[in-house]
Structures are given as C-alpha cells and as structure tokens.
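Course assignment 3, question 2. Fill in each field.
Student: A.L.
Task: Predict the tertiary structure for the chain below.
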Amino acid sequence: MSQRSIWRSLVLLSLALLLGGCASLRGPGAPGQKLDPWESWNRKVFSFNDKLDEHVLVPVSTAYSELVPAPVRQGIDNVFGNVNDAWSAVNLVLQGRLRASVEQGMRFAVNTVLGFGGILDISTEVGLEKKSEDLGKTFGRWGFGTGAYIVWPLFGPSSVRDTVAMPADWSASPSLVFREGSAKVAIYSLQTINTRANFLRASQMLEGIALDKYTFYRDAYLQRRGSFSDDEEFEVLTPAKAEPDPPTQPGP
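Answer field:
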C-alpha cells in the first residue's frame, strides 16, 4: 500500500470517528437547541457576523444592486449556479443516484453550450430541474448525522458534518478556475455581493418578523440540512412515504 493510500485511509477513519462522535452531541430544550450545545459561543459569532453584514455587506450590496441591473445580476447568479450544477452531478454519483446525476450533467452541458457559459438558464425552460447537492449532503446520504450546529466567523451557519465537507465544496467553487489569489478573491467577493444583493428585500422583511434572529436562522438551517425527527442523528434526504388511505366502507 502506497503512502498516499495510507494517508487517505487515515483521513477517512478520522472523518468517520469525528462525525460519529460529534453527531451524538446534544443540548437541552427544543429540537434546535438539542443540536446546539455551543449556543453561547455561536450567538457571539452570529452577532459579529450580523454587525459585519449590517455595516459592510448590506451597504455594498445596496450600492451594487443600484448600479447593476437585475437581468445582469441574474445572469451572474446563473453562471455561479451552473458551476454548482457540475459539483451537484458529482455528488449525485457519490450518493448512488445515477439517473439524477445524468440529468444534472445534462443540465450543466445545456446551459454551458446553449446558455453562453451558464448566463442563460435554458435547462429550466426545457424541464431539467436543478438539484443542489454538496459533499455535506452526500455524507448525510451515507448515514452521517449533521452533528452539532456551528456558526463560523464570516462563513455563517454550519454543522460538524458540513464543516468537514467544507474544504471539498470550496475546491469546487467558481474561483477554482483561476490560479492567482487576487482573481480568486475577486470572484468570491462578486459571488457574495451578488447573492446578498438578491436577498436584500427578504432580509428586510425578516427584520420585522423574526423575534430572535439567531433562533430563526439556526432552525431554518437545521431543517434545511437535517431533520428534527425522533432519530436526530441521521438526515432525511428522501420524502417520507405517504401512508395508505384507510379502506372505505361499502355503502348500503
């Protein structure tokens, strides 16, 4: 066995131990709190990120949205989404969902060729639905639980499982095509600002609705990435089977 294979085996073993151990971390209280044993730390980081968003990202995104027309912003969003479609196709293969992977690959090919590199979303118009998958969801498909909820500075909500998958997901980001560090930073900044500009109205509505923004974001993230079922250690990635209708009684 080569040295590279040995290191790969050790990394996979460490990953299994980390996810298996951290998935059992539970806190008291409601379902969201059970997956949030580090709530005190997470709230401090969330407050820091919220202040940064309020004083830096929102003003920049607001000015950006006023300068850049909505169709252009949508085209930029489509290009980034097209790159994510390719990574989703890879993860669908790893999940054993070959048919969905082929459809996602076709979506990427159609938008790349006919949509001018993904600027136009032709695939949605022809019925190829978008299936966003990442390595964190792939780990969930393999049976790893979400683990404890974590809020990272700058990067926002995550979990133990998604944090482990984060480096691989980053390596498949649109900035990967650039070798220079300045170009990578520019592409990442454009993606962040463009995405934030598209959600300015939604965030303004949230300000008046959510009583506790931290709890709202946490529960929304965990519901999107995991499950609040009785067995909280495993993510539900497929819809629950519908119960059969009770037999009808024969009429008189």
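Instructor remarks: The longest helix spans residues 39-67. The radius of gyration is 21 Å.
Grade: pending
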